[in-house]
Amino acid sequence: MKILGINGSPRGERSATLRLIAAVLEGAKEEGAEIDLVNIIDLDIKFRNACSACFQEGRCVEDDDFPGLYEKIKGADGLVLGSPVYIDQITGQMKLLIDRMADGIQCQVLSGKYGCSVSTSGDHAEQEVVKYLNHFLQMLGATPIGGLGVATGKDPDALIRSEEDARKLGKTLAEAIRTRRQYPEIAAFHERFQKKFEAVITGEKPEWPGDYKHWVDQVWVW
Ligand SMILES: Cc1cc2nc3c(=O)[nH]c(=O)nc-3n(C[C@H](O)[C@H](O)[C@H](O)COP(=O)(O)O)c2cc1C
């Protein structure tokens, strides 16, 4: 079982968000997961340029670190997304990655996989960021099993105290993957989403042959 953590903070190793992600991964490791961690700031990930090659060809043609990271993401059984709050939202680094993965929504690339999200803030919007990141995971087809947001500015010990909660979140993530835990509300969302995209993908077949082929390969349309 592979679980990949992705940190959207530009502060790299000094990042408070990284501490939460690392604690989630530690908990997952205690449950037998093989863990890996990526700081987006260490990679060369360019802005999405709206070329739509991914929709047409089923692959990214940009020569940067995104295609390699995308393969890693698709090869994981679980994802842990983390971003600090920057002006009430995720960081630009995390948004760059999310925009580059738009094709993953249409192709439901994380279908059958699990994930969770964490965020740290000075004093507000950390829960909104957790909600947004989990929503993104869900749109990719994954099942978010929970999240953790910590306002570090309100209480200097908040981060240390939250690391235990983060470890528990990691254990829950690994257990959910191992037991293929079912979350009926999320399954209902995926069913609605799949129906909506079946119509979109079929309608756009001439413009998006790459995505259409993926749906045929998955036997979602025939
Ligand atoms: C550019 C910038 C914008 C920020 N915006 C917010 C904000 O809107 N709300 C908030 O509570 N904290 C905000 N913060 C504080 C960070 O979210 C907080 O320090 C966070 O824990 C940093 O995480 P990191 O160490 O993982 O980068 C901001 C910090 C920076 C540098």
TrEMBL record:
Q: Which InterPro entries match?
A: Flavoprotein-like_sf, FMN_Rdtase-like_dom, ISF_SsuE-like
Domain NADPH-dependent FMN reductase-like, by residue range, is 1-155
The UniProt keyword set, sorted, is: Flavoprotein, FMN
An example Gene Ontology molecular-function term: oxidoreductase activity
Cofactor names: FMN; [4Fe-4S] cluster
Keyword NADP belongs to the record? no
* Top-rank taxon, per record: Archaea
The similarity annotation says: Belongs to the SsuE family. Isf subfamily.
**Protein name per Swiss-Prot or TrEMBL:** Multimeric flavodoxin WrbA
The source organism is Methanoculleus thermophilus
Q: What is the lineage of its organism?
A: Archaea, Methanobacteriati, Methanobacteriota, Stenosarchaea group, Methanomicrobia
